[in-house]
Design brief:
Elements: H1 2-26, E1 33-52, E2 59-62, H2 64-68, E3 75-86, E4 89-105, E5 110-113, E6 119-122, E7 127-147, E8 151-169, E9 183-199, E10 204-217, E11 220-233, E12 239-255, E13 260-277
Antiparallel strand pairs: 1-2, 1-3, 1-13, 3-4, 4-7, 5-6, 7-8, 8-9, 9-10, 10-11, 11-12, 12-13
């Protein structure tokens, strides 16, 4: 009799544990706030920068890697995420910065037009120390018009802010002894996005996000394309591990009264990250 009672009690206890575990398994995972921090391993960085005098057409177009000896095959920190203030509405954000230093003895004469419209010439065999900073910051709004436990499809719009800073340190011959000033410009441009996420099961999901714009206003003209394709594993309730492939292309033209700046850039690489959810 006592054995029967013991068996009954154990079966009841097991049933209770099963019910509790099932209830926990069915609890929705937190997804209101997401913060992902990872490393962007840059596998490809193709860039061209030109500064010209709009009246004379004088100036030069350079590739920072070949002309200035810069190396962009590096890993940089990348941050992104969102805040869902409603199940189908979210604020999104992302940021990353790529920078490189160069130190090279020129093989041929180097011409440049600074921000004052002044033509500068550095002769061959001169040593040029340079630094390029390329920062991208994006904020936006996402409307997930189809959002279930399995699939999320959304469209969004926001602001893409690019900062480009190029500093060259050398002694020029024309004008004699003058230093080349730094080019530093910040470009705010709109961006439109499409997001697709599919939950394979409660642990695994894959996603695709594409962004683009093409616009001309005031003294600015530009186009931008960005694509991210990745997979994520929800290791714990509030923590996920992910990997993605990212590629983007940017073209900017600033037509000022003193100078004309053209900047084209293509970046591609892999991203490994850790994400927290609340």
């Amino acid at each position: 009799m006592n054995n029967n009672k013991l068996i009954t009690a154990l079966l009841a206890l097991c049933s209770l544990f099963a019910i509790v575990n099932q209830a926990r398994a069915e609890e929705p995972l937190p997804d209101k706030f997401r913060l992902a921090l990872g490393g962007f391993a840059v596998a490809r960085f193709d860039s061209t920068i030109s500064m010209t005098d709009p009246n004379l057409g004088a100036g030069i177009s350079i590739n920072p890697q070949t002309t200035l000896g810069m190396d962009f095959n590096t890993t940089v920190t990348r941050l992104e995420g969102y805040y869902r203030f409603k199940p189908k509405h979210a604020l999104t954000y992302s940021w990353y910065s790529i920078s490189s230093d160069g130190n090279k003895i020129l093989q041929e004469d180097f011409e440049w037009v600074n921000e004052d419209g002044e033509k500068i010439i550095i002769e061959a065999k001169a040593q040029v120390v340079s630094q390029l900073d390329y920062d991208i910051f994006k904020v936006g709004y996402l409307w997930s018009f189809h959002h279930t436990d399995k699939v999320e499809i959304g469209v969004g719009a926001g602001l893409h802010i690019t900062r480009l800073a190029l500093g060259l340190n050398a002694t020029s011959t024309i004008p004699a002894g003058s230093a080349i000033e730094q080019v530093d410009t910040t470009v705010p441009l709109p961006v439109f996005s499409v997001v697709l996420k599919y939950n394979i099961n409660p642990k695994w999901s894959w996603f695709m996000k594409a962004e683009a714009f093409a616009l001309q206003f005031d003294k600015w003209a530009g186009s931008y394309r960005d694509t991210n394709l990745g997979i994520e594993y929800r290791a714990w309730k509030n923590v996920a591990l992910g990997a993605a492939f990212s590629a983007n292309s940017l073209e900017i033209e600033e037509d000022d009264s003193e100078y004309k700046l053209d900047f084209t850039n293509n970046i591609a690489g892999g991203v490994l990250y850790v994400a927290t959810y609340f």
